[in-house]
């Protein structure tokens, strides 16, 4: 039990009223470990990862083939990445080439976030 903290301090959930407080996740793709299989692109539910100009839909439809380049985060027109750091891509990666550099931090639209302590990113298959 936490001592010296009030009930409010122990259960206080931060509020982010400033959109500038929102930060998307940043991933690190290790090109030495990457085998260019495209599994990370297929696994990303948000479609945030691309290889060259190929997106998730290209790999799912069969148009995208493996070994066409290294993965990278897709960005919005203002160069902001769209990743929320779920790490599904990392779990799908057979070589462990994907790590998180900066976690997702919600901003103004998600004023309150509750995450149970037992929640963890997905594990490798």
From TrEMBL:
The keyword Iron-sulfur applies. Pfam families: Fer4. The keyword Iron-sulfur applies. Coiled coil: none annotated. Keywords: Iron, Iron-sulfur, Metal-binding. InterPro entries: 4Fe4S_Fe-S-bd, 4Fe4S_Fe_S_CS. GO terms for molecular function: iron-sulfur cluster binding; metal ion binding. SUPFAM superfamilies: 4Fe-4S ferredoxins. Residues 25-54, 69-103 form the 4Fe-4S ferredoxin-type domain. This is 4Fe-4S ferredoxin iron-sulfur binding domain protein. It comes from Desulfosudis oleivorans (strain DSM 6200 / JCM 39069 / Hxd3).
